[in-house]
Amino acid sequence: MMDLSELRIFCRVAELGSFTRAAEQLGMAKGRVSTVVQALEGKVGGRLLQRTTRSVRLTPEGELFLVRCKELLTDAEQLQGMFQLAGGEIRGRVRIDMPNLFAQEMVMPHLPALLAAHPLLDLGISTNDRRVDMVREGFDALIRLGPLPDSDLVARPLGSLVMGNFASPAYLARHGIPHTPADLASHRLVYYANNLRNEEAALLCMVDGAPQAVPMRSALAVNNSAFMQAACLHGLGIMPGALPTNRRLIESGQLVEVLPAFRLPPLPVTLLLPQRRHLAPRVDMVLNWIARVIRPSMQDLPVTPAALV
Known about the structure:
The protein is elongated. It is an alpha/beta fold. The strands form five sheets. Strands 4-3-5-14-6 form a five-stranded mixed beta sheet, with helices on one face. A three-stranded antiparallel beta sheet has the order 12-7-13. Strand 1 and strand 2 (about 55-60) form a beta hairpin. It starts with a helix and ends in a 15-residue tail after the last helix. It has ten helices and 14 strands. Helices cover about 40% and strands about 25% of the residues.
């Protein structure tokens, strides 16, 4: 008879295409993982994985078996969690990846209350500004800002973030306050560049109802949103960003919004999920909690102090 632990091990190997990576994620010896999968193949009476020196791939039978395995594991987790939700006791692992500043400014302030209410919850939050592979890297969900690439993931809209452009008071004291996009010719830009290639530095502004890339002199290109914010705070230049992820610094006077009349449209925020029938109760609870705590920041409200115009 098969048990759930065998099915979980098989699913991880199948999803990652590697016994080594599966063993690392499961915290098991590679030999033990291989033995479990071989025993499972003996029980079902057929080969589930095609092994070579370079890869591990599902056989046609393995593909069918993987689909059913995921359904059974999800059903088992739901059955196990039925009464945990009713009693308020959530336990187990949840892994989510989200953008750096989004996690730092919009989620982190609320985490102490969540973890105090659910001490048995094993929560892992990855703060990447790069694209990740949900299945291979073992995430239950992703949160992404902006347009989405084509994928087979399930997308749930969470709202949108008001966008803006920001600078430190010290920078503006040295370089002046831009009032129109034409004024940006004498300013410097701190901007996000995913791969740091030799891209032309430009700030996107709404001009005559359409986005327009306004060329600027580059002060610094970075591939980390928190580092971009730090560079702006140190007076290196103007940066684009979302108002909610910079609200704390605006309200404290450390950053000032510039060119508010030329803001881009709000940036969509999306929750991405794997193709499954159901979510485990603990995952569903955490995702609903995130949606709830970020909701006030999704409203298109002005920030204080008033932006410079």
